[in-house]
Amino acid sequence: MVALAEEFGTPLVIYDGGLLRDTMRRYVSAFRAHDAQAEVIYASKAFWAQALLRMAHEEGLRVDVASGGELFMALHAGFPAEKIVMHGNAKDARELGEALDAMVGLVVVDGLDEIALLDRLAGERGRTQDVLVRVTPGVKPSTHQYISTGQIDSKFGFSLEGGLAAAAVAACRSAANINLVGLHCHIGSQIFEIGAYRLAAQLLAAFVKEQGGDDLTVMDMGGGLGIAYTRDDEPPSVEAFADMVMDSVSEEWDAAGLPRPRVMVEPGRSIVGRAGITVYRVTGTKDIPGVRRYAAVDGGMSDLMRPMLYGAVYEALLPERPEAEATEVLRLVGKHCESGDVLIQEADLPPIGPGDLVCLPATGAYGVAMASNYNGVTRPAVVFVDNGEATLVVRRETYAELVARDL
Ligand SMILES: *Cc1c(COP(=O)(O)O)cnc(C)c1O
């Protein structure tokens, strides 16, 4: 990390390329061990560099996109269109047209207006589009517990309660240019209590039975498996997640007397999160007597939005002195003009000063993917390291790019 920070500058996002590939392989083999037809779909919004998308394709994953831009990036990386799953709660006519023209494998519909629009656009092209209906089963998982809320107040999906999901299935079945093939649900993110997937499977199997017909042959159970952000976090393994999802669906569909569906899952965070580390350089410290000590770094909310957005907790380490004893508690802050631009509220660290490197592990998901140019900061470079070899896969943005779109 010290050598890479020297070579490529900071902030720098470093991925363990071997770990990325290994996690993709574990995912595919864990699910295929239950059913050779099971599909692992990488949720590209978590981190979408071309190098990563190409790797996901090489390893036999499909890919989820949630906008026309993500669709473009997946196609550009070489994904065949039939392996692409188009998501989004607010797809517009242009994006749906792009998905149809590319001939994506699946569109996950998320609104009655969208179903009508997709039907019309597909008809204009003389095509029939395979779709999944996104349902909201009303299971609310948090990191350490889950509950069945029947909660229907969400911008995503059609709730099972209140008949919205049934209405969406009926709308798809009666649309001439839409071919309904199954259901989708994504119950949440950073989930440790994977029993929540069993509860979701139970509710979904009952819904499939109630809907009748033989067209609901695909069950996409979404993503959401949690990862360790700090040393206290103990998330379930990929294999435990696969067992839970596959066993739950088989058992619940069997119990309902239904033919087993083809299962899909859509992990994002659990593929890329732990493989990424962000390295910053300390610009200076500030002591406020009787209050606390601050240390500021050369990045912040523009490359890592999660602490500010969700109060996400990270830990910091010193690449130059990994074994040094943590004797200080300080607030690690970014360089942006926002008081809330805090990376770690209370970081346990050895004494640090200007010029020192600080790294935050587990920043591989929803880090650079959410990066911005706030304060005219150029977005960071991304490096993949594999077998001791570093490859620059995304170069740092330039100042010239900051004005390139201005007319
Ligand atoms: C974000 C998202 C995912 C991936 O979630 P992770 O928590 O990163 O695994 C999968 N499916 C849908 C529909 C999503 O919105």
Quick overview:
With 407 residues, the chain is α/β, with parallel strands linked by helices.
Describe this structure in words.
This protein is of the alpha/beta class and 407 residues long. It has 2 domains: 2-12 and 275-402, Lyase, Ornithine Decarboxylase, Chain A, domain 1 (Beta Barrel); 34-271, Alanine racemase (TIM Barrel). The chain has 12 helices and 19 strands. It has helices at 2-8, 17-32, 50-58, 68-76, 93-102, 112-124, 164-174, 195-211, 238-255, 269-272, 306-310, 399-403; strands at residues 12-16, 39-43, 62-65, 84-86, 106-109, 129-136, 139-141, 146-148, 158-159, 178-184, 218-220, 262-265, 276-288, 292-297, 328-333, 342-349, 357-361, 381-386, 389-394. The strands form 3 sheets. Strands 1, 13, 14, 15, 16, 17, 18 and 19 form an 8-stranded mixed sheet that branches. It has an 8-stranded parallel barrel with strand order 2-3-4-5-6-10-11-12, surrounded by 5 helices. The protein has a two-stranded antiparallel ribbon with strand order 7-8. Strand 15 and strand 16 (342-349) form a beta hairpin. Helix 2 (17-32) runs parallel beside helix 9 (238-255). The protein is globular and about 70 Å long. 47% of the residues are buried. The mean pLDDT is 96. Residues 43, 45-46, 64, 87, 186, 189, 222-224, 266-270, 365 line the site of pyridoxal-5'-phosphate.
